[in-house]
Write a structure and sequence with these properties.
Elements (H helix, E strand, L loop, with lengths): L1 H5 L5 H9 L4 H38 L10 H26 L4 H5 L7 H37 L9 E5 L7 H12 L4 E8 L8 E2 L2 E2 L11 E6 L3 H5 L3 E4 L12 E5 H7 L8 E4 L2 E9 L14 E5 L6 E6 L4 H15 L8 E2 H8 L1 H35 L1 H9 L4 H35 L10 H27 L3 H6 L2
Parallel strand pairs: 5-10, 7-9
Antiparallel strand pairs: 1-11, 1-12, 2-5, 2-11, 3-5, 4-8, 6-9, 7-10, 8-9
Helix pairs in contact: 3-4, 6-12, 6-14, 6-15, 7-10, 12-15, 14-15
């Protein structure tokens, strides 16, 4: 639409002559809509080819299995609708604008550029670049948040922790303890234990915790983590006060360990030694763990207690020394086959489970980069074409200015100035919209980055730089041309 509108003046005489020889406005409207639809159809063919090329990569990113082999009626129908709407929208203003030229005014050369034409052209440039700036800022925010997620200290060490579920003979508590002792003797395995929690989301809870001063109406759910001895050594979970479970204390099955969030919720200032009742059983608090994220960063850390119950701790977790993973796992397979014959070892590292929590965010990160790049490319292509056409129209002016002593740098600045003003206006529109959009997205995370103006300024600088490079290419090309050539062409 932008380029067609810009070329309107160049086609003015064509319209005037056609009207003089009898062409009606309706005929001209059909002609220009037909040209636009033909262009849209050609674009559709190119688009189908591009979709076929990028679809495998898109499926890989999104986990889909989309194909173009057997398009259904719905896909064909919507493709035709998009083709028709795109063609009509792209050709609507030029068709209605060009066909309204008065032949007498056109042929006398008295046609002036309409204010509406300038408004539409500038409005489209502003719209394109506002969208590009919004996408650039969004990509930066998403990237920083994903990096924050991947590097944030969770309160426990998930690196080099191998996890697999109990099954078969290993479900027997005696066999479980014997297996763990054998595993601890494998070179490269630092520590081993069992934990009844995935550490990647809610795994089970209870509102059956009772303490002194509890509101009888309170139904707050505490996360339940059934554990074996040494679980804190495997995950490197630090104690805020008190002690972890230990084999030196035979009565630890009658003790309980809470996290900081639970102690704070219960309003306890000195919790060690105090009693709580869980499921009708009185338990003494012997330790308070520092808070750690056992759910995604979308969730706030909730009250949790670790209960010493090896038989209910359904997941083995092994801490492996960095660099010894391959050798340790090979020996682990042999030990596993000996203790649990007939069952395969389906193990995975804990950090892989953590990454799966944010599969959607990772997809957003990748796709947003692709869409931002596409939006920037389309904007720059449109601006490139528009600048080329405007420079062509101003070739005589450029020649006269050069004859009068204008420098190449001065001409480049002159030709770029109007577009840079439009980009500045785009930034004023894009910044508040991007602030609102990224703010809404970040609010879905309890723990998120703080946006600074640096991201917005960097995005603005990148767009201004791309705009200047896009326009300056055409501007420099026009400015270095011998003025005699442009003046002769007139």
């Amino acid at each position: 639409m932008n380029l067609s509108t810009a070329k309107a003046t160049g086609r003015a005489k064509e319209v005037g002559i056609k009207k003089v020889v009898g062409a009606g406005r309706f005929t001209l409207v059909l002609q220009y809509f037909g040209e636009s639809l033909l262009m849209a159809f050609a674009s559709l063919l190119v688009a189908l080819l591009l979709v076929a090329l990028v679809l495998p990569a898109f499926n890989g990113i999104t986990g889909k299995q989309l194909t173009l082999n057997h398009p259904g009626f719905g896909l064909i129908l919507w493709t035709l609708v998009i083709l028709l709407v795109t063609g009509l929208l792209a050709g609507s203003y030029p068709a209605l604008y060009l066909s309204g030229f008065k032949p007498a005014m056109v042929l006398k050369g008295k046609l002036k550029t309409a204010t509406s034409e300038i408004f539409v052209r500038k409005g489209l440039v502003v719209f394109q670049f506002s969208l590009s700036v919004i996408l650039i800022i969004s990509v930066m925010v998403v990237y920083r948040q994903i990096h924050f997620i991947q590097t944030k200290k969770l309160g426990y060490d998930r690196d080099n922790v191998l996890a697999f579920y109990k099954e078969g003979k290993l479900s027997d508590p005696l066999q479980q303890e014997s297996f763990l002792n054998a595993v601890r003797n494998i070179p490269g395995i630092v520590q081993a234990s069992c934990i009844g929690h995935s550490l990647a989301g809610h795994s089970g809870g209870t509102n059956g915790v009772v303490w002194a001063g509890k509101d009888p109406k309170d139904m707050t759910e505490f996360e339940v983590m059934n554990v074996d001895y040494d679980f804190q050594d495997v995950l490197n979970i630090a104690m805020k006060e008190g002690r972890p479970y230990s084999r030196e204390y035979v009565a630890d099955t009658n003790k309980i360990i809470f996290n900081e969030a639970a102690v704070k919720f219960m309003g306890m200032t000195s919790p060690i030694g105090k009693k709580v009742t869980i499921w009708g059983k009185d338990l003494e608090i012997v330790g308070v763990m520092k808070d750690f994220n056992f759910q995604s960063l979308h969730e706030k850390i909730k009250p949790l207690f670790a209960r010493l119950s090896p038989k209910d701790a359904y997941r083995f977790m092994l801490k492996i020394k960095p660099g010894k993973e391959t050798a340790a796992i090979d020996q682990l397979l042999q030990v596993y086959k000996r203790y649990n014959p007939g069952f395969p070892l389906n193990a995975s590292f804990l950090d892989e489970s953590y990454q799966r929590l944010y599969a959607a965010e990772n997809r957003v990160s990748v796709l947003s980069r692709c869409f931002a790049g596409l939006a920037i490319l389309i904007s720059c292509l449109g601006l490139f074409g528009l600048a080329a056409f405007n420079i062509q129209r101003r070739s005589r002016e450029i020649g006269i200015r050069k004859v009068l002593g204008a420098s190449v740098g001065g001409l480049v600045l002159l030709l770029s100035r109007d577009y840079l003003k439009l980009i500045g206006f785009s930034l004023l529109i894009a910044f508040p919209v991007a602030w609102w959009m990224t703010g809404n997205w970040l609010q879905s995370f309890v723990y998120h980055i703080q946006r600074g103006w640096g991201i917005f300024l960097l995005a603005g600088f990148l767009v201004i730089l791309l705009t200047f490079l896009t326009i300056s290419f055409q501007s420099i090309k026009a400015a270095v041309v011998n003025p005699s050539r442009s003046l002769k062409s007139e």
